[in-house]
Amino acid sequence: MGENQHGGLRVRREFFYSTTAPRAVEMNEMARDAKPWFIWMLCANFYLYAFFQRVAPSVMITELMRDFGVTAVVLGNLSAFYYYAYAAIQMPVGVMLDRFGPRRVLSAALLLSGLGSLLFATAETLPQAYFGRLLIGAGVGFALVGTLKVAAVWFPPKRFALVTGLTFMLAMVGAVIGQAPLALVVDAVGWRGTMMGAAAVALLGVPLIWLAVREGPEPEARMTPVPHSGLLRSLRLIATTPQTWVCSIYSTTNFATMLAFVGLWGVPYMMEAHGLSRPAAALSTSLVLIGFGIGGPLFGWFSDYVGRRRIPMRVSSVGVLVTFSLIIYGPGLPLSAIDVLLFTCGVFQGGAVLGFVTAREHNLPGADGATLGFINTISVSSGAILQPLIGWLLDLHWDGRMEGGAQVFSVGAYRTAFLSLLVACGIAVVTAFLVRETFCRQVRREA
Fold first, then answer.
1. Whole-angstrom Cα distance, residue 274 to residue 277?
2. Sign of the CA dihedral 293, 354, 133, 401?
3. How far apart are CA 89 and CA 84, in angstroms?
4. Which terminus of the chain has a smaller tally of CB atoms within 10 A, N or C?
5. Nearest-angstrom CA–CA distance, 307 and 359
6. What is the H or E stretch that residue 421 is in?
């Protein structure tokens, strides 16, 4: 049946990957050339920067609480402003990239991120700091979809999965840089000087993207915007597919420990529970990120190899629940065992990416970009919800101890607050058993 007979409900593939693509032979020749890799690397480094900014507050907690005179729940909100903007921007990202092209959009987004970092670094009041984090989140919210857009245009389809995997690996590099290495920099120059440096990096990257990134291999390649009506119909179809929500909740709750524990509260917990210095605590928590960088491609390969989605998703969610429980509540475990568990937890957490894959297979093949934006919006919400929630629980169980003008929480307070993360892990297990098997095929083909 034609598209008109469906009343326009069949979403055109142009939504996310629409371009006037060169012939397959030309694409293969260009993929072997250095230019596509150079362009991709510039954009992927923007996603690296996004993850760096996502976890950076975790090694600045004491200084931020002291300088702004705030409690844990307020600090959680300050960090979460990144997620508020990041999540809000996901839905229109694909349309803006199609309409204006990655060169213009990513240049403007990186500029916005740099200005947000500058405002955050120089903030004298809490509202200024809030607005700075909001601008950072809004800017870096374009990084993932923009990088995948560039990859889809410049590389042949058979290499898209490889380039996507490398993109996520670079993101984990950014997250690791935002832990132990950043903690050393913060100790040396303070959090304001560190964020000034982050602003400079972003602003210097703007002309590089503007000068190097092009819309496609051919000069006449142009983005084809999708009519607003098509976008609204595609979003309605995605939102009314029950499995979209099941997969979204699965990824959201499976990501929770990385976004809330590693993203903010893990470093001070490791310092308090195991007597570590801030750089050492950041190094330990970064093991989750290293594990995730390995686990994502590993679970993707295993899922394709066995031709199943549900089995690896169940293994992932159960593994995260067990390892995180042992990390926080394991009796008398030495630090070496905790480090192994942190790494293992990250590996298991890599299975969260299967929620994205399975959601795509339950929706129309032409709505890949819309599905990605939808599930990404929900997934990052776990950080926006859980970071301030844990801060609120910590404030409730604070024993009044202060050091250097900042609140210090007991191990017992952390363990009580982290029960919220165990609940999230439990929900991930339940939803993994509610996912319908796709057998690694596109289940839904027509509206």
1. 9
2. negative
3. 9
4. N
5. 16
6. helix 419-434
| Cβ density class 22-59: b for 16+ within 10 Å, e for less | beeeebeebbeeeebbebbbbbbbbbbbbbbbbbbbbb
pLDDT (0 to 100) of residue 410: 95
Residues 345, 288 contacting (CB under 8 angstroms): yes
Give the C-alpha separation, 417 to 398, whole Å: 11
- DSSP SS3 for 315: helix
Please give the Cα distance from 428 to 4 (Å, whole number): 40
Place of tokens 């290293």: 290
Q: How many CB atoms lie within 10 A of CB 8?
A: 15
The answer to whether residues 392 and 73 touch, using CB atoms and an 8 Å cutoff, is yes
Distance CA 243, CA 442 (A): 13
Which residues, 6+ apart, have CB-to-CB distance to 68 below 8 Å? Answer: 74, 75, 78, 126, 129
C-alpha closest to that of 303 among 319, 314, 292, 289: 314
Encode 119-130: b = buried (16+ Cβ within 10 Å), e = exposed: bbbebeebeebb
Q: Beta strands of 26-93 (E only): which ranges?
A: none
Q: Which amino acid is at 63?
A: E
CA dihedral 422, 425, 427, 432 (to 10 degrees): -160
pTM: predicted TM-score of the whole model, two decimal places = 0.75
What are the chain's domains? Answer: 4-434 (1.20.1250.20)
User: Residue 82 CB: number of other CB atoms within 10 A?
Assistant: 31
What CA–CA distance (Å, rounded) separates 290 from 175?
Answer: 9
Q: Over the chain (447 residues), what is each successive 10-residue block's mean pLDDT?
A: 42 39 44 79 93 88 88 84 86 74 91 96 92 94 84 69 73 87 91 95 94 71 48 78 94 88 90 93 91 85 84 96 97 95 95 83 71 78 84 93 86 96 97 93 68
